[in-house]
Amino acid sequence: MMNAEMRSYQLAFHERWHHLKNPHVRALAWLLDAPNLLDSNAPQWQKKIASLENSVDDNVNDWLIDLDRQPDELQAILDINRFTRLGRYAEKLLAVYFAHVKRLHVHGLQVRAGKDETVGEFDFILREKEGLVHWEFATKFYLLCSRNAAYAQIQQADYFVGPNLADTLGAKMKKIFGRQLLLGTHPAAQALLSEPLVAAQALVKGWLFYRKEEPVNTIALGISSSHCHGWWCTLAEFDDHVGEDCAVLPRLAWLAPERLPLEEGMQRANLRDWLTQHFHDDPMPVMVATFKKQGDELLEVDRGFVVPNDWKERANERVRGIVAPSH
After folding, report:
1. Which residues contact 79 (CB under 8 A, 6 or more apart)?
2. How far apart are CA 127 and CA 103, in angstroms?
3. Is 314 helix (H, G, I), strand (E, B) or coil?
4. CB-hemisphere CA count at 13 Å for 115?
5. How far is residue 308 CA from its own chain's centroid?
């Protein structure tokens, strides 16, 4: 079940990382320190879930502080522009960390079979004590959508759908386990490596979003009991979910709990008007956050997706195409 520890995640993050100001350094701190999305002990993951638990020791903390004071080199590596994808942004952040701790063997190695056929790409090959290890990395954001309360209890991973309805948690994990983690067994991949891989694992970070007050047994799905979570609501339900001080979270700000200058916040009524216009032109759900004021800053205390009023029906249609209900 979702527990009290999950509900206070943002406040705990602000307390732990209050000394970091740069948003990219804070995003890196979140990647290193946030709970895994998946339970590494769940039997369905076959002990193939990687973890960064206990990766932030005093040396790493000092390094993050130095990056925060002088972020220019990090920002140059990230090379952010309006086309930067969140997944690639997170990968680059982790690559900087793995290089710093001297674990990185290679990042983003493409595997080709012949001149025109791309077999796949290794996200990370890390050098560990036992040898080379392949880590597939994903940062995912899914909304639990069920046609009724009874279906929610079926606990199918495909009931977690992406905000753009193009992906589900179930489909993503099938792809990771059925294809991506097998890349090292391909002859074309083996020819690129200086030595055999000793393991292949998936590191999955992210946030899951639920209807408020909907009880969900995530343990059956192999989801970590302490995973980061938020809510989702339709535009019609907006006022019951969003506080007076709020803001839209752009995609590259979806990782760590947000910290904004006071003047960058919005009032709830203004955000409601903005969303109404947005959904008139664009059906894509929007992630928003509620903040508390602290001095001249706003600190995120809650987040969720606001979706168009017809999104739930479109999501149900997506789920119906994947899951065969038992009732």
Report:
1. 92
2. 5
3. helix
4. 0
5. 22
Quick one: pLDDT band at residue 233, thresholds 50, 70, 90? very high
Per the structure, how many domains does the chain have? 1
Residue 324 lies in a domain: no
Would you state the torsion angle of the CA atoms of residues 59, 60, 62, 65, taken in this order, to the nearest 10 degrees? 170
Local structure of residue 101 (DSSP, 8 states): T
Q: Is residue 93 part of a domain?
A: yes
Residue 192 lies in a domain: yes
Q: Which domain holds residue 40?
A: 4-231
* Residue of 176, 195, 180 whose CA lies nearest to 131: 195
Its pTM stands at 0.92
Q: What percent of the chain has pLDDT over 70?
A: 92
Locate 104 and state its tokens: 């990185």
What is the distance between the alpha carbons of residues 263 and 79, in angstroms, rounded to a whole number?
26
Whether residue 150 is predicted with pLDDT greater than 50 in this model: the reply is no
Q: Is residue 275 a part of any domain in this protein?
A: no
From its phi and psi, is residue 156 left (phi > 0), alpha (psi between -120 and 50) or beta? beta
The DSSP bridge pattern shows strands 160-161 and 259-261 to be unpaired
Q: What is the mean pLDDT of residues 28-32?
A: 98
Predicted confidence at residue 265, as pLDDT, reads: 96
Which residue in the block uniquely carries the two structure tokens 């709970």? 35
CA distance to 29, 186, 218, 303, per residue, from 53 (Å) = 12, 30, 20, 24
Contact 37, 205 (CB under 8 A): yes
Backbone angles phi, psi at 153, to 5 degrees: -80, -10
Distance CA 32, CA 50 (A): 12
- pLDDT tier, 316 (very low <50, low <70, confident <90, very high otherwise): confident
Render pLDDT for 273-290 as a digit per residue (tens, 0 to 9): 999 999 999 999 999 999
Q: With contact defined as beta carbons under 8 Å apart, do 84 and 75 qualify?
A: no
